[in-house]
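Proteins fold reproducibly. Take a sample protein:
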Amino acid sequence: MSTLPPITVSSLDYDRLSALLESVSVRDVPGVVALERELERAEIVEPDSMPADVVTMNSRVLVCDATNGEERELTLVYPREADFEQGRLSILAPVGSALLGLSIGQSIVWPLPDGKETRLTVLAIHYQPEAAGDLHR
């Protein structure tokens, strides 16, 4: 994998995701290790200091997959709320943990379960809870 871009995560998301990781079996969910690695390298900031151009939990974002040129609007959610057909992407999905903390314009190359890689670019953030003042979503 190439050099990873810097990421920013709110302290509220960090705490909630850390609790999620403690409750999930690593054997059962392959995305746990990737999310742990992302949280370890993240810059942690208070929710009211979160830049509005950063993907946080429950953000609705427009991304482009460079491998096929497809653009898609996704909402980054906790596993219990996931519904890929509705664009609700679990944080434990490979692409979910890849998006967390990225800023508009940033790209990341990310391995997929089938051994291939994808390159995602954040094109826009249509909704971010911190920017909207929705801290208890």
